[in-house]
Amino acid sequence: MSQHHTPGRVAVVTGAGSGIGRAVARLMLAEGYRVVLAGRREEPLLETAAGHRQALAVPCDVTVPADVERLFAAALEQWERVDVLFNNAGVFGPAASVDEITVADWNATVAVNLTGSLLCAAAAVRAMKAQSPQGGRIINNGSIAAHSPRPKTVAYTVTKHAITGLTKSIELDGRGFGITCGQIDIGNAATDLMDEIGVGSGAVQADGSRRAEPTFPVQDAARAVLLMAGMPASANVGSLVVTAAGMPFIGRG
Fold first, then answer.
1. Straight-line distance from the first to the last Cα atom of the chain, in angstroms, rounded to the nearest whole number
2. Contact at 8 Å (CB) between 20 and 88?
3. pLDDT above 70 as % of the chain
4. What domains appear along the chain, each with residue ranges and CATH number?
5. Are 114 and 156 in contact (CB under 8 A)?
6. In angstroms, what is the C-alpha Rg of the chain?
7. Burial class of residue 200 (count of CB atoms within 10 Å of its CB; 0-12, 13-18, 19+)
8. How many Å apart are CA 85 and CA 229, to the nearest integer?
9. DSSP characters for 163-204?
10. How far apart are CA 117 and CA 140, in angstroms?
């Protein structure tokens, strides 16, 4: 069945209860996608859905394999396919350098940002292989940290570098099944997470000083994700970097 005969493409969005995930889920719903919203707590998911009839909220902890299986089973039961996964759930982790981080904090950050992304990608790929030759598309949310760290973010930075390897592996292994994969690296979209690390009030710079950094609306970050998601099956955006204009990324010091 061609895309033109489906009422709307089916997307799974993890971390849909806040931030970039919420903005992407809402924009996808507005653009006619059928969206499965995943996140640890149901209440924020229902807030994101705002009663939209094409939204399905599924509480899910991406670090728990059974939860992830249940998430994709719910998607398939409801709409019989998965066209897009926005692999977005993530945590910033502790403020610590390599000699300071506890093993527990390291493992907790890796569990969400890396293992959780792997588990969701695995379930999505299984669903997409089953609908081959149509396949599908996975978009991994990396970060500017996939290119350049902030001070004392060893766990976050390492997991986001690792997402790049996951992205390339999915893209390569998906070739024979019509499955494509790309990574979006977003810098300083205005979210609660950015408030947490002090981007607007004064984020720690490489020289130890603090400075307020520019941000840009999270809705515009969502538009970039939608651009990637909406490419035809014959094309793939493998990597997209979008930052607040003038943020200290190109020249850090």
1. 53
2. yes
3. 93
4. 3-243 (3.40.50.720)
5. no
6. 18
7. middle
8. 9
9. HHHHHHHHHHHTGGGTEEEEEEEEE-BSSHHHHHTTTTT-EE
10. 8
pLDDT for the residue numbered 199 = 73
pLDDT in tens, 129-150: 999 889 999 999 999 999 999 9
Side-chain half-sphere CA neighbours of 111 within 13 A: 12
Residues marked active site are found at 156
Would you say how long the chain is, in residues? 253
Q: How far apart are CA 241 and CA 143, in angstroms?
A: 8
H helices of the chain, where?
A: 19-30, 42-49, 65-79, 103-110, 117-130, 154-173, 192-196, 218-229
Average pLDDT of the chain to the nearest whole number: 93
Q: Which of 124, 33, 46, 132 is nearest to 87 (CA)?
A: 124
- Rounded Cα distance between 228 and 122, Å, is 20
At 224, which amino acid appears?
Answer: A
pTM reported for the whole predicted model: 0.94
- What are the phi and psi torsion angles at 187 (to 5°)? -115, 115
